[in-house]
Amino acid sequence: MRKKITLRKTPFVLLVFFLMLWLIGVTVNEPKRVLEQAKSICLSCIGIG
Amino acid sequence: MRLARKWVQAVWFFLLNGFWGFPFTGTIYQGPMKVICSPGLNCYSCPASTTYCPIGSLQQLLLNIRFTLQTGQYYFGFFVLGTIGMVGAVFGRFICGWACPFGFFQELLHKLPSRKVSIPVPLTWLKYAVFFLLVIIFPLLFVNNSGIGQPWFCKYVCPAGTLQAGIPMLILQPELRGTVGWLFVNKLAIALSFTVWSVFSSRPFCRTACPLGAFYALFSRFQLIRLQLNEENCTGCGACHKVCPVDIKFNEVPNSCECVNCMKCMTEACIFDAISVEAAGFPMFGPELAKTNKCLLPKRKI
Fold this sequence. Notes:
The complex is a heterodimer of chains A (49) and B (302). By secondary structure, chain A is mainly alpha-helical. Helices cover 57% and strands 0% of the residues of chain A. The radius of gyration of chain A is 20 Å and the shape is elongated. Chain B has a three-stranded antiparallel β-sheet. The chains are: A mainly alpha (49), B mainly alpha (302). Chains A and B meet through helix 1 and helix 2 of A and helix 3, helix 5, helix 9, helix 10 and helix 11 of B.
């Protein structure tokens, strides 16, 4: 007998929640800041200096 | 499936570390791809790294939060949290098992012939403390006179950073060698400890100290794509226990936070089709879909 399939909604709720967070981050221009950080070598971050 | 996973892991390893011009430039990749998030733990100060590390970036944003607020900028880390949150909501710890370069490195080390040792369960709780304390709380709370904190995890612990960035940068830029102190020696000891431990135990860093693994583990019960136990088919034979690289008893705890979703239990152990992959409740691979003649994998002969 085939089992009845029920849709799990929680993953979609989480997706929408984190998409909202991501959009807020984009709105306040966080990607620019992240890019600046990622382009530079943070010596103290890797235990040097 | 085992070979396919190794290939996927290798592809991710080289995608995330795809800048091989560093011996000529003498520095890290600084192109526009660095705005893309690495799904696994991969230090962005690694000369070959093409993407940003979510754990490193999150700490950098949080430790500067007072300073940026004073300058009228609202950088709370939402962009980074949103990115890894969406990845976690869809794939959870599939990322650990399939796309994390440091996880792949540990798996390769574990293939070296040696006596294999399991990891005590209480140690696996340590990674949540690492995530909440070293990545979030300490960078926010402990600040200097200028109101700027420190990237505690990257600075004091991260073995991926030491192996991928610290050592290569010392080779690429010899003038940095004079600045090496006890901090680096300490980090080197941590990195070497995890490297040696990986030979004897499966994925020790992922299981005890990885903050990204801890974050993805929070999604284990809710992730969109996950392994599913079909209880009607399970005979309780325990075959899935024997192949699990992270010592999970899948038929007893199907959505364990420790599961890295390598799918060994499904493809190499269970002959009763008791384990399948589902997305939001709909079967993707396994017996449920086989009944509808739409199964993506060929039916296994018993």
